[in-house]
Design brief:
The complex is a heterodimer of chains A (340) and B (344). With 340 residues, chain A is of the alpha/beta class. Chain A is built from 13 helices and twelve strands. Classes of the chains: A alpha/beta (340), B alpha/beta (344). At the A-B interface, helix 8, helix 9, helix 10, helix 11 and helix 12 of A face helix 6, helix 7, helix 9 and helix 10 of B.
Chain lengths: 340, 344
């Protein structure tokens, strides 16, 4: 990490994934869209980092840029992404193909569209294993059965010959996770992995992530808009707003001492929070809308919606600076009394 | 504010033994199957009451909404709106009653006509029912937009110019402009971001306090249903498993399914998460096309006994008349505690 602020934390270099000053731009008809601006984080072995934010804040773009899934022609990417110290930008597309699925794998939100409908799930799992490892078909098949059992699919051997349409949404998502962990990846990127699932099924899928972290030491970047999911599984959190990380700390800290007004707004807007406060049933909403991604003025982008904004907020953009040790916030009014 | 029906007052909505079956499968292979979307439910909504209908996908909750608004004809059972049997009314006979029941759908992007302005959309129900002169309608629309928190200058805008939250406010204004007795809200905030969702939920509660309509609020999100409802019914595979007041349901859920559902819902409170033992259900929701004898939940229920597999439990009050549960294992003496079982 090159930021001075994070130097003490980064001194212990057990980091698997280091994202440093990531900047992603798309050129569209409507102008240049700056989807991700100056995002940095490190992910240790066996750590689950949650990227949280509302729609359009750039969290999925971060996810897609890590395994270099954004086409070079569409997107302009700056900054570095290092996996075990190797800068992924320096690898050729051919080398990158060995990284994807082996070292970094991705679980997408839509389990309906990310499996090939024409092949059995056994074939799709075996394909990934044999792509990356020199094993016999029969050995890969045995491995596939183990993987399906690992993600809690009953009667795994029979399920190998099932086609995706024969499985329920929850099962398909578990198959996706089985494919993602097939080659013991160092990092899993999970982009809204449970959003399309029912809560009782979601609980099971989150449990699998927790088990993978604990048993295999897999590091996971979990992208979600659901703060409940964050509280359930994440070790640390980065809250994104308008393409930037505005607050970053441990999961316990973010719920105990949210410092950025946006984070506080998100927490206050949760229907469960209204009941805890008692009195009249009412939720705290955040007025206004997210600014368009085509502009990037040198000011706090949350200021127009912020209850605590002052002239200083629009004079210069507040940097992501330490608030207390291990807790960084991009706000000049960070902390203080919780405003109602 | 919201006392469920007393003997002398006619409930706004009274549903008895509602059944809706769809047929599916291929006509060619004669492999016809009956999907039991709603399989015999009773539901009563009193004046000014917000009843939450919560369930996972495929539980039949949206079909209930479609039946009570008569967007579809039920297979069996009766639906009474303000005391009048509407179960088999023709479209023409139903039309005058449409001023009493309105729907707000989940997707504000497809439920508003893209070629109409906000003003036209909101005044459409008034026009259809021939309410007031043009000038009256204009002022009613203005008043309704104000109540839903939409700025005056949005009147001449088209839906595509609005944000998701604004569109849902327009949908609310349209649903309420005729002052209906009942509003059916089918997942009205599920497509919205949490901060926008909060403002829409606030508006719904404010409007309810202001206009006094009754509401059937259909959702899969427990925290939303807990926030908005006076009373809650939990659905699973076309049947109501448990029904009681909001406080009771969240304080002492009786049905094993409700307990599992509440336990599975992620809570944005790490301390509470670590303190409780999670109940993880095995297996998936069975297909509603399969004919299951006994309790619909027995295939996933960790405490199911032989009786659950053969005999279908009725939704009855056990100890408290306000708390009805469809489970053989819940008795006047108590209910199975899945939390304790998970800890053991």
């Amino acid at each position: 990490m090159s930021t001075i602020a994070a130097a003490p934390a980064a001194a212990t270099t057990s980091a698997v994934l280091e994202v440093d000053r990531l900047h992603v731009e798309f050129s569209t008809e409507g102008g240049c869209v700056m989807a991700v601006k100056d995002v940095s984080f490190t992910l240790g072995r066996g750590e689950i980092l949650a990227l949280v934010g509302e729609s359009g804040c750039g969290k999925s773009t971060v996810a897609m840029s890590i395994p270099r899934l954004l086409g070079d022609t569409r997107a302009r990417i700056e900054g570095s992404i290092r996996l075990d110290g190797v800068d992924l930008a320096t690898l050729s597309e051919r080398q990158m193909r060995h990284v994807r699925g082996k070292d970094i794998s991705v679980v997408f939100q839509e389990p309906m569209t990310s499996l090939n409908p024409a092949y059995t799930i056994g074939r799709q799992i075996v394909e990934v294993i044999r792509q990356h490892e020199k094993v016999k078909r029969s050995a890969a098949m045995r491995r596939a059965v183990e993987l399906l059992a690992l993600v809690g699919i009953p009667d795994a051997r029979r399920r190998l010959s099932a086609f995706p349409h024969e499985l329920s949404g929850g099962m398909r998502q578990r198959v996706m996770i089985a494919i993602a962990v097939a080659c013991d990846p160092k990092v899993i990127i999970a982009d809204e992995p449970t959003t399309a699932l029912d809560v009782t099924i979601q609980a099971g899928v989150l449990d699998i992530f927790r088990r993978l972290r604990d048993t295999l030491g897999t590091a996971i970047v979990l992208i979600t808009h659901d703060l409940g999911v964050v509280a359930e599984v994440a070790d640390s959190v980065a809250v994104m707003y308008a393409g930037r990380v505005v607050e970053q700390c441990s999961t316990g800290e973010i719920f105990a001492r949210p410092a950025h007004p946006y984070t506080r707004g998100l927490l206050g807007a949760l229907p469960s929070r209204a009941l805890m406060r008692g009195g009249r049933r009412r939720l705290a909403d955040i007025a206004g809308v997210v600014p368009p991604p085509t502009v990037d003025p040198d000011e706090c982008q949350f200021a127009p919606r912020c209850p605590r904004a002052t002239a200083a907020c629009v004079a210069a953009r507040p940097p992501l600076a330490p608030f207390v040790p291990g807790h960084r916030v991009a706000c000049i009014h960070a902390g203080g009394e919780e405003t109602a | 504010m919201s006392v469920p029906t007393d003997g002398d007052e006619v409930p706004v909505l009274e549903v008895r033994g509602l059944v809706k079956h769809y047929s599916s499968g291929s006509r060619l292979t004669r492999d016809r199957r009956v999907v039991r979307a709603v399989d015999g439910i009773d539901l009563t909504i009193g004046r000014g009451e917000i009843v939450g209908l919560v369930g996972e996908s495929g539980s039949g909750k949206s079909t209930v909404g479609k039946c009570v608004t008569r967007l579809t004809t039920p297979t069996a059972g009766t639906i009474r709106l303000l005391g009048r049997d509407i179960t088999h009314l023709s479209r023409a006979r139903m039309r005058p009653l449409r001023s009493q029941v309105h729907v707000v759908f989940q997707d504000p992007f497809s439920s508003l006509n893209p070629r109409m302005t906000v003003e036209q959309i909101v005044s459409e129900p008034l026009k259809q029912h021939g309410v007031g002169s043009r000038r009256d309608r204009e002022s009613t629309v203005g008043e309704m937009l104000e109540k839903t928190g939409l700025a005056r200058e949005l009147r001449s805008r088209y839906p595509h110019e609005l944000s998701g939250g604004q569109r849902q406010r327009v949908a609310l204004a349209r649903a309420l402009v005729l002052r209906p007795a009942l509003v059916v809200a089918d997942e009205p905030v599920s497509a919205l971001d949490v901060s926008v969702q909060a403002s829409i939920l606030n508006v719904i509660l404010d409007l309810q306090a202001d206009l006094g309509f009754s509401c059937l609020f259909i959702t899969h999100e427990l925290s939303v249903v807990e926030f908005i409802s006076d009373r809650i019914a939990v659905m699973y595979l076309g049947k109501i498993m448990e029904e009681t007041t909001r406080e009771r349901l969240f304080r002492e859920p009786q049905h094993p399914y409700t307990q599992a559902l509440l336990s599975a819902a992620p809570s944005a409170d790490p301390a509470a998460v670590r303190a409780q033992e999670r109940i993880i259900l095995s297996g998936d929701i069975p297909s509603p096309a399969a004919e299951l004898p006994g309790c619909p939940f027995h295939t996933r229920c960790p405490v199911a006994v032989e009786r659950c597999r053969t005999e279908r439990p009725a939704l009855t009050a056990k100890a408290d008349p306000e708390h009805r549960t469809a489970c053989h294992l819940v008795t006047a003496d108590g209910a199975p505690d899945l939390q304790a079982l998970a800890r053991a």
